[in-house]
Amino acid sequence: MNRTGGGRSARWCATAAAVLLAVACGHDGGAPVALAWHLTAMHADPHRSLGRGEGVIIAFIDTGFTTTALPAFAHRVLGGWNVVTGTVDDADVSGHGTEMAVLAAGGGDQGVWGTAPAATVLPVVVADMDGHATPGAVASGIRFARTHGAAVINISLAADVASPDVTDEIRAATSAGIAVVAAAGDLGRPGPEFPASAAGVIAVYGEDSSGQVGAHSNLPTVGGVLAPGEQIETTVPVGASARKLAINGTSAAAALVSGVIAACLSAAGPRYGTVQLRNARCTQLLLARDAGQFLDLKLITEAVK
User: Fold this and answer.
1) What is the CATH number of the domain that holds 119?
2) Above 70 in pLDDT, residue 114?
3) Residues 52-69 pLDDT 10s
């Protein structure tokens, strides 16, 4: 997904996901792999017992998902849909969708963990191999996710122009108690691009390891969430293997937040009797982050149990 100049009218592009560096593809089983900086900052211990995303479906409105060389996803990927081809072929056409799914739900393959390492992935292909998607495809993808059990919908795409069809589908999803998370955009502009700007969407901006707004993020205005979005470790399929890399931008930040919500939902105690109540409480905790602090996954899951 090439996010060079932003979405153009009816053409949507994925935010961020520019590959910055390739790191060693895993390790030899000797010294333990250090936890990525963003997981440490977010207190997202991958081996925690509470709030790992069990039973929570995250839909990725993106370029698909390829599980090659990612065995930790066994039994955690649902059959998705390819809106572009009108088939069940949900294999990743560019790598971006896989990168996002790993950030949210990665289970430790090559030492890379997601913020909800036990969550289930629902891939929905809406973009072509160049990373371009039409509003109609995005709207159809959101509808598919809503009607196929998603509790969280991640949209790491951005466009300059709002779409009534996409807005309607977002409204239907949020009315059903589904959390919709979207990347705010990477162009350094004030405020979010669409669909992060739509009512009911959790707009996610990126920050660096010092807690400052990242170089690859729009500038937060009223509302929205800051999450790590610089030098974020993930993996991408390469032939019959997978490659570990680091990426920048609000695509990555949004995927991390989708995982946080999934983790929160799985930790929610019995007093939250409906999905609407659970999502409302998790969103409230997400937005209540203290100034100067990173999102604290441990604090959020403890607060909701």
Assistant:
1) 3.40.50.200
2) yes
3) 999 999 999 999 999 989
